[in-house]
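Treating backbone geometry as a discrete language has practical consequences that deserve illustration. Part of our work consisted of pairing the sequence of a single chain with a tokenised description of its backbone. What the numbers capture is local backbone geometry rather than side-chain detail. For completeness, the protein is quoted in full, as a sequence line and a line of structure tokens:
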Amino acid sequence: MNVDGSARTEGGRRIRGIRPTGGPGVPVVSVVLAVYNAGDALERTLVSVLRQAYPALELVIVDGGSKDGTIDRIRRYEENVDYWVSEPDRGVYDAYNKGVRLAAGEWLYFIGAGDELADRDAVVRIFSPPPAGRMVYGNVRWGDTGKIYDGRFTKLKLCRRNVCHQAAFYHRDLFRELGEFDLRYPVVADWVFNLKCFGNAATRPVYKDTVVANFDLTGIASQRDDPAFETDKRSLILGTLGGMYLLLDRAYRFQKRLSSSLVEQLRGRR
């Protein structure tokens, strides 16, 4: 029971004293799965994580107090889940922040119910060999469209679009140094965190040209905008990447608007 009287339940291998172990060149990777009333979507995500061939994987499930039978689904896999907890939270990034504190791994990966790791070797490819930097990312498959999103990122590219969190792995030290996901941005707090990562010289992001996950197009980030992020975006870019990238991004957007306007004018003359 939490201090506010709300119910808290937990389970998993950790409760029985079983902990994941790594080894030389094989760091423990914690997969943090956030879920709330996920229905059937949870099971395909669970299966995609539990089938991974990587030998030092930890699965931590953070549920927001589901009432739809989600906990029953988790219990079916309890022998293979390292730790799970169910209690009310303030949204997906609050759940991810809890997962950071609960996870035992040197590296952290975040996934939502409905998303799937691409195949059984997805994590193996990322950590063979272990990355030299403290963030490593690949690509995602964009729903059932067949599109692969979105290649190598530069600081300027990150001003325009985000690295999918389903494609990215973060060293634990980044959360100690840069802070947790900012709950002021309920839809794209991971974008804010990625800006901090790319703006931190010690991060040294590493790109691997591989598909990590299948991105669920029905998820929260694909369904609605984040007004707080749009309001603060310029100051966030300025504070993380610096004034040069803010100016370059503004120039790019001006050029894009100008090009679109010219195209419309030409179409109107036909």
Q: What stands out?
A: The mean pLDDT is 92.
